Amino acid sequence: MSTAVTHKKGFGAFLWDYITTVDHKKIAHLYLIAGGLFFLIGGLEAMLIRIQLIKPANDFVSAGFYNEILTMHGTTMIFLAAMPIIFGLMNAVVPLQIGARDVAFPFLNSLGFWLFLFGGLLLNASWFLGGAPDAGWTAYAPLSTTSPGHGVDFYILGLQISGAGTLMGGINFLVTIINMRAPGMTYMRMPLFTWTIFVTSVLILFAFPALTVGLFLLMFDRMFGSGFFDPTMGGNSVIWEHLFWIFGHPEVYILILPVFGVFSEVMSTFAKKRLFGYTAMVFATVLIGFLGFMVWAHHMFTVGLGPAANSIFAVATMAIAVPTGIKIFNWLLTLWGGNITVNSAMLWSLGFLPTFTIGGTTGVMLAAAAADYQYHDSYFVVAHFHYVIVGGVVFGIFAALHYWWPKMFGKILNEKLGKLTFWLFFIGFHLTFFIQHFLGLMGMPRRYWVFLPDQGLDTGNLISTIGAFFMAAGTIVFLINVISTSVKKQEVAGDPWDGRTLEWSIPSPPEHYNFKQLPLVRGLDPLWVEKTEGRKEMTPAEPLGDIHMPNNSILPFVMSLGFFIAGFGFIYQVDDLSWLTAVFVGMGIALGAMFVRSVKDDLGYHIHKEDLEKGAK
Amino acid sequence: MKGWMGKFRALFLFSSLLLVLSGCGKENLTAFVPEGYGAEVSLNLIIISLAVMIFVILVVMIVYTMVLVKFRKKKGQEDFIPKQTEGNKALEVIWTVIPIILLIIIAVPTVTATFDLADDSKAKDSININVTGNQYWWHFSYNKEEIQTSQDLYIPTDTRVYLNLKSSDVIHSFWVPSISGKMDANPENENTMYIEAYEEGVYWGKCAELCGPSHSLMDFKVIAVSPEEYEQWVQDMKNVDPEAQPETASAQEGQKLFQENSCIGCHAIGSSPAAVGPNLTNFGDRTRVAGVLDHDKETIVNWLLNPDELKPGNKMAGNYPKLSEEEASKIADYLLQLQPSEITPESAGNE
User: Fold this and answer.
1) In chain A, which among 550-609 make CB contacts under 8 A with chain B?
2) For residue A413, is pLDDT > 80?
3) ipTM of this complex prediction, to 2 decimal places
4) Which CATH number, 1.20.1530.20, 1.20.210.10, 1.10.10.10, 3.40.50.2300, labels domain A11-553+602-614?
C-alpha cells in the first residue's frame, strides 16, 4: 500500500474526505457540526415556545403546532444536540487522553455518526411531511399510539436509527478505553474525563437497549396493529413509562457525567492543581452511574405505584446526592489553594458550580415523593431539569469547546467574545429558569400551550421569555466567535494552557496518527509529571516504527442512507403497501453494504518509519 | 447542628411568608397557600427539604466565594505553582457523612408523608367519587349518592373525599394545587387518592399530563361547600327531572333542538351514567364553559357554532349537525337555565 500522503484539493475532495473518514478527530468535527446545527434548531424551537408564552392566552402558534415544537425541542436537544456534541468531544479527546493512536473500531465509529445523522434527518423531515411528533419527548402511550398522522412514526424510526448509532459509539469507547491505553496508563491514572466517558459508555450499553425495545414495541403498536400499550387489547400503557424511564433516567447521567469530566479537567488545569480527591471522584462517578439505573421510577411518583414503591425510589434517589455532593466539594477543594486563571473555559466552570448546586438540590427536593405530588409535571420540574441539563450539560459543552478548541482546530477562540457569550447566556439562563420553580408551584403545569390571564402567572412567564432572548443572544455571539476564529490565521502550540494530560503533549491539531511513539505514562496527569521533572515532552514507550492505519470507507454512509430510505418505507407502508418497495430498497442497500464489508478484506495501510522521521525533520 | 437547622427553618418560613404576602400566585391555584390536607402535607415536606437544601447551598456558596476571592491569579504571581494536594481523607469523610445525615432528615418525613397520603383505611366510610379524565374534560360520578356531573366537583369541607381516578382515552393527571398534589388517571387501572378542603371556596384544578392539543385547556373546579350545603346539593341533583320543561319559550325550543340534533346522544342531563360527553345536569351553575371560557350566552353560542376553534382537538367538533346562530342561541338559553340547585359556586364564595 502506498504511504505517500496525497493532498487532494477542491471542495468535492474535502467533502469526500469527511464522508469517508474513519479518523476519530474528523468524526469529532462531524459530530460537532451536526450536533451544533441541531442545537440551533432545538434552540429555535425553544424560542418559539417562549414567545408563545410571553403573555397569557397568546395565539402566536396553534395548539397542535405547539405540541410539535415542544416534542421536537426536547427530542432534538437530548438526542440530536447534547449527546452528539458529547460524542464529538469524546471522539476528539479520549483517544488522545489515553495515549492511543485511534479508537478500537474506526469503521464502527464512522457508522455510529452517520446513523445518528440520518436518524436526526429522518426525524426532522417530519416537519415537511405532514407534521412533527406531538406526544412529548417521552411519547407516553396511549397519546403516542393514538396520535394521528405520521409524526410519532418519524419519532420512532428517527430515534431507532440514531439510537443504534449511539449504542455503537458507546461500545466502541468502552472497548477503546479498556484496550487501548498507553503503556503505564492504569485505570487509576486515567484522566477524569476519560473515566466519565468510560462510565457513560457502560450506561449507554445498558440503557439504550431498553429504548430500542420500547421503540420497537411502539412501532409494532402503531404500524402493525399489536397492542402492547393498548389497554383495550390487554396491553398496559404504564409499561411504556417504565421502559422509557429505564432508558431515560440513565440518559440524564449519560449527558451529565461527561461534563463532570470536562469540569474536572478544566478546573484542575486552570487552578494549576491536580484534582482534589481523584480516587473519590472516580468512585463517585461509578456510584452515580450505578445508582442512575436504580431510580427510574422517581419520574413516576404520580402514576399510582403505591406508597411502598414510591418510598423506595424516593430514598434511592436521594442517595445520589451523596456522590454528587462529594464531587461538588472536591471541585471546590481543587480550586482551593490554587492559582486560578479566569478565562472563558473557566468562567463556564465557575458558573456551573452554583448553578448545578441549585439543580442538584431541587433534585433532592423532587425525590421527596409526597412533595413531588406538587412538583410533578409542573414548571418546577421544567426549571429543575433545565438547571441540570443546561446549567450542567450545556455549560460543560461550552467549557469543553473553549478548552479543547485549540487542540481540535489549532486556534484559540476569542476571549472577549467568549466572556460575552458566557455572561449573556448565564444571566439569560437564570432569568429564564429560576422563576419557573415558582411558576410551577403557583399552578403552572408543563407543556401548556397557553396559560390563562388572571391566574397570577403573567409576570413570571414574561421574565422567563426575556431571559430566553438573552440566551439566544449569547449563542449568536458564540457563533460569531467560531466564524471569526476560523477565518483568522493563527498558530497554536501543542500546549497553550500549560495542560496536564496527554492530549497536550502533541501538536495542535494532532497528526492523523496522533502519537508518533506511544507515550510512557508514569502517573496521574502524565504530562504534568514530565513537566515537573523538567522535560517538555512525554518519554516514549516504544521505538519509532511503522504505524498501522485504517482505510477510509464510504460504506458507513451507504449503510445509514439505506436505513434512512427504509425508514420512510416503514412509515408510509401503513398508508400504501407499495411503500414496502422503499423498505426493500433501503434494507437492500444497508445489508448489501454490510455484505461488502464482510467479504472484502480491508487491511488498512502503514505509515512508514522513514516518513514519520521526515515529518519530524 | 439543631440550632443551625432551626434558624434556617425560621429564616425560610419567614421568607416564604414574605412570598405569600407579596402575592405569590393566585390564592385558589397556588400550592404555596395550602387550603387542603394533601397540599399541607406536601408543603411541609417542601419546607423541610428546602430548608436543608438552602443550608447546603449556603455552605457551597461560602466556600465558593472564599475560593474566588482568595485564589484568583494575582499580578506578579503568574508563575506560581500551587502545592499539588492529593486529597484529604478527613475532609472527604465529612462531606460524605454530613449529606447522609441531611438526607435522613428529609427521607424520614418523606416516607411518613408518602404513606399518609396513600392511606385508604377510611375510604369505605367516606364519599367516593369516580373521576374520569377525558380529552379534554372531567367526569365525576358520586358512588353512593348516584349522581353524575362534570367539570365542577362539589365536595364538603373538612371531609376526606376519596377519588377513584381513571381515564377513558389517554393519560391525564388530576391536580388541584391548593388542595392536593396530583395523581394520574391511567386508562387501564384505577388510582385512588383523597382530598380534603379546609375552607369553602372554588379551587382551580388542572390536567398535568400532556394529553393532546387542548391539554392546557383541560381545567376544572373543585367547589368546597359546608357539609350541610353539600347534602342539599346532593338532594337537588338527585331530584333533577331530565325532561322538565323550561320556563321561557326560547329555552323550550332550545330543549327541542337539543333533542333533535342528538346532543342528548352524547350529553346526559340527570344522573344517567352513560355519556361520552360532559354531563350537563347543572350546566347553568357552572363557573366556566368548557373549563376555561367565560360562562355567558355569547360564549356558549360561539362554542356551539365552532367548538374546535375554542378548544382544538376536542371530540365534539364535527359530531353533530351544523347549527344556525339562532338555533345555537336557543340551545344556549336552554342550557343556561339548567340550574337545579341553590348551591352554586357563589355559595362557596367567589371564584
Assistant:
1) none
2) yes
3) 0.92
4) 1.20.210.10
